[in-house]
Amino acid sequence: MPVIAPMPAARSTRLPSQRGGAEETVAAGTTVDHLTETYSAHYRSLLGLAALLLDDTASCEDVVQEAFIRVHSARNRVRDPEKTLAYLRQTVVNLSRSALRRRILGLKLLSKPMPDMASAEEGRTTNWSGTR
């Protein structure tokens, strides 16, 4: 399980209403406890989702862990805690696609042939004794 540092999270935030100046209560987002429960319940299924897009286990684990880190850092922006899993799934898909793009770019760069250049030995004009 990831180590998630507890942060004081307010259950609700008072925002001024645009009608008449009254205040209304808005949910403050996903709590750390809810995110920990989501991790316990859905980590394997998110790994499976990443495995559909990526081919190696290490990359899948990295993508899922990064998704949880990003959701944790943006948990106050997730207004409905019930949508945390959907947000995680979308983050896993986006991170997997980014990883694939980086791999494809790397393969394209590696597949380009190196330019033909003379070796250092061929360019030598003197021998070891100093004569030509």
Q: Count up the helices.
A: 3
Helix content: 40-55%
Low-confidence stretches: 1-19, 21-27
CATH topology of the domain at 30-103: Rna Polymerase Sigma Factor, Chain: A
The helix-strand sequence is: EEHHH
Query: How many E-type strands?
Result: 2
- Arithmetic mean of pLDDT: 76
Largest sheet: 2 strands, antiparallel
Q: In the CATH classification, which architecture of the domain at 30-103 applies? A: Orthogonal Bundle
For the record, give the distance between the C-alpha atoms at the N and C termini, rounded to a whole number: 69 Å
Oligomer: single chain
Principal-axes geometry comes out as rod-shaped
Spatial order of strands in the largest sheet: 1-2
Give a structural overview:
This protein has 132 residues and is mainly α. The protein has a domain at 30-103: Orthogonal Bundle (Rna Polymerase Sigma Factor, Chain: A), CATH 1.10.1740. The chain contains three helices and two strands; from the N terminus they run E-E-H-H-H. The chain has helices spanning 32-53, 57-73, 84-111; strands spanning 12-16, 23-27. A two-stranded antiparallel ribbon has the order 1-2. Helix 1 (32-53) packs antiparallel against helix 2, helix 1 (32-53) runs parallel beside helix 3 and helix 2 (57-73) crosses helix 3. The longest helix is centred in the C-terminal third of the chain and has 28 residues, at 84-111. The model is unreliable at 1-19 and 21-27 (pLDDT under 50). Residues 39-103 form the RNA polymerase sigma-70 region domain.
